[in-house]
Design a protein that fits this description.
7 strands; three-stranded antiparallel sheet; four-stranded antiparallel sheet; globular; about 110 residues; mainly beta; single chain
Length: about 110
C-alpha cells in the first residue's frame, strides 16, 4: 500500500500525488513514492524531512524531476549524516512548475 504498483494502479497520472512512506513504522531506510503529471517540462521537486515539532531534519531531494512515478529513499539520517532516534517525523513534498506550487505533508514513524 503506497508503493509504486499501488500508485500506478489507483491514481490519476494527471495529478501530483505524495504516497505513503513504506515501511511505516520503519527501523531503517524509508521509501517515499511520488507521482508527477506527464509533461514536456520537468517539475522542481523538493522532499524534506521534519522533526515532529517542525524543525527541518534533512532534504531528501531538491531537483528538476520529469513527470511520472518516482520513489525517493531516505536513509534515516539528518543533514550531517547522523542516524535519527525513534519518534514521529514528517515528510513534505513541494512541487513547482512555473507559478504553480503544490505541497503536501504526511507522517512517518521511526522505531
Amino acid at each position: 500500500y503506497g508503493d509504486e504498483a499501488f500508485i500506478q494502479e489507483n491514481l490519476n497520472p494527471d495529478l501530483v500525488f505524495l504516497g505513503l512512506a513504506y515501511p511505516n513504522p520503519s527501523a531503517g531506510k524509508v521509501h517515499i513514492p511520488v507521482s508527477l503529471p506527464e509533461a514536456s517540462e520537468e517539475y522542481h521537486t523538493e522532499l524534506v524531512i521534519f522533526s515532529g515539532d517542525g524543525r527541518m531534519i534533512d532534504q531528501v531531494t531538491s531537483q528538476a524531476v520529469p513527470g511520472g512515478f518516482h520513489t525517493f529513499t531516505w536513509d534515516r539520517t539528518n543533514e550531517a549524516g547522523k542516524r535519527l532516534p525513534a519518534g514521529l517525523y514528517l515528510y513534505q513534498l513541494r512541487v513547482r512548475k512555473g507559478e504553480e506550487v503544490w505541497q503536501e505533508t504526511k507522517r512517518l514513524i521511526l522505531k
